[in-house]
Design brief:
The chain has 291 residues and is of the alpha+beta class. It has ten helices and eleven strands. Helix 1 links the parallel strand 3 and strand 4. The chain starts with a strand and ends with a strand.
Length: 291
Amino acid sequence: MGRAVTVDVAASSANLGPGFDAFGLALDWRDEMTLTVADESSFDLTGVGADTVPRNDDHLVVRAARTTLAALGAEVPGLALRAHNTIPHGSGLGSSAAAIVAGAAAAWGLARPGEDPDPEWLLQQTFAYEGHGDNLAASIRGGAVLAWNGEGPRSAALEVHPEVAAVAYTTELSVATKSARGALPGTVPHGDATMNLGRAALLVHALARRPDLLLDATHDVLHQPYRAEMMPDSWNLVQELRTRGLAAFISGAGPTVVALGERDALVDAPEAAGFTRHALEIAGEARVVSA
């Protein structure tokens, strides 16, 4: 009773253009929250979405924490959650994945103080909540990741060139992931699939060794064009930025737009009407910052 853990978890961008449901990237836009073992659950929530999320055990952080504690053989009467959220909801920046990872990482810190969480174990525990391994793995591992399903969710870290950074363009619009997926066709032309496969392979190389190839490597025809009508301003911004030579794409299900590139080149990334521009570094792993 009274044991507390504070965790720090990054936002994430999924797909990165051609890597639909496979690529994820952690961005240094972090939420910090504290969980304390208590007689009963309580909620001190501020920041983005504080008035819209549940203030009971259905809160994603608490749900994920309780499930993870049970998997670790620990039970608690209640959890007091204190959180100030900054990652916008419904924006394509992995806010749900960050909350789920935060709860699971906090549970690990409560049950196994002093031990670093095992990233693949955390992915297994959190996948049932989110179902998108790319966002989860990026927030768990940090950096760039590949995610896939084998006998359950799997992930692997990708190398990122030290000069690669990001610019994110956020808007007040929100898009539900379910709606964005509903805009996708059941089948796509063989040529489109082949093109995306080659660009996704190139993206691995561009992220690690050749940032100058990121513009070509982030080209996509598999999912973004089909969602353009849902977020026309974001799609137009992607086209404008790419015309300027910036490797821009819709982040996850949108409507946030992200551009990747070498840090010095991104200094000239323009402002955009109707969007807020954020210069971001590539983030590290989920952290138990105090216990």
